[in-house]
Amino acid sequence: MIEAKNISKDYILKNKTIAAINDVTFSIRAGETVGLIGENGAGKSTLIKMLCGILTPSQGTCTVNGLIPYKKRKENAFNIGTLFGQRSQLWWDLPVLDTFEVIKIMYRIDKEKYSFMKNWVIENFELENVLNQPVRTLSLGQRMKAELAATLIHCPQILYLDEPTIGLDILVKHKIRDVLLKYQKLNNATLIITSHDLSDIKELCSRIIVLDNGKLLYDGSINQFEQKYGGKVNISFVCENNTAQLVQEVNNQFTLDNTIVNGQNVCFILPDKMKISELIGVIGNACSLDTLEIKNNSMEEIVKKIYESKD
Question: Where do the domains of the chain lie, and which CATH numbers do they carry?
Fold first, then answer.
């Protein structure tokens, strides 16, 4: 569905060449859901704009559904849906339903397909009560749901979503994620999503691509990413007596990354790939395990540590 081979994009700034994307190669199959993550300036939006045909690669090649996007922008546009954060594609003074009608004409959607998709997005995004309101009168949550509805109404096979839930409350976020997953299953659609809210990525995506200063840092499953870059386990519990003695015993027997003690609350931070069964045995001999909690580093913590390690 999507192929990028040694793709690069350079900009000239004050007679200096800046590589926004630097020799990136990947392929995405039809029906995959891929999260594209990285710091601000990592090249995420630039990469998406090349796949949309808005930007031309400086080097390398990319194809989307067999088309070279920047050479076949019009044909490519009929197969894709895009949402770029808070940049509206809706007509500000038109009612939402009128915007849908305009999109129907723009994308030459046949009557039967349009009727089905119009009803589908209205029902799933719960837009019944705002269809006749001008876009400018909508709340942020209502407008973002209407934006996504407008993105989906021509039934694109590929969705590029750049920060689709930015600034939204938790209920609207959950609604948008739920509808996107329904749409993906309904049409076997391919989703490429960028977001600084990594809960979006974890809930929507089976695979992630991590960019760092325009270069490909990681491409693979979320589970493998967490194993490769995370690995650390936190064991937290309450020690009702002899806390200092237990902590000393554990640190004498095991090499830990850190030990945090706050009164009777203890947290042992284990190094990569350390087996925890023996450590839990020592803890269990000294105190009740009813309060024991074992937690892996969150994805947010892993990404943060990766970028902090560059400083």
Answer: 2-227 (3.40.50.300), 231-308 (3.30.70.120)
